[in-house]
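Consider what follows.

. . .
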Amino acid sequence: MTTQQRLKNMDWLLKDLAVTVPCTRHIVLLSADGLCMAQWGADKDTADRLAAASSGLKSLAQSVAAELPHSEGGVRMVVLEVDGGFFYLMAAAANSYLAVTADEGVDAGLMSQRMRDLVIRIGDHLASPPRAPEQAP
């Protein structure tokens, strides 16, 4: 199964997160460079904006992480509390991230736990086998 086919099958995974965590507004699976790969609860334009903004926040978080002792600059999770709700960004699989917006009434602990559960399942769907070395003719 190709990555594109796997991404088409993501809808039910993203919907499951939204259904099991009340107050979820938008869910976006994005590539490290900010391209929306899958979404729930958002139109295409909103999903693309969230993916691009999430990529920028990921880059900022990497810069901050690089200043911490014993850090290699990796980003596991970013949480923002803003007027009207919350924004979550979590590393998913290699070179992909899960971004979620939620209303003020969201249970932050439940959201984090369910996102982590989803990331574990997404990793299985996005994983691709290692490439075999080329053989000399």
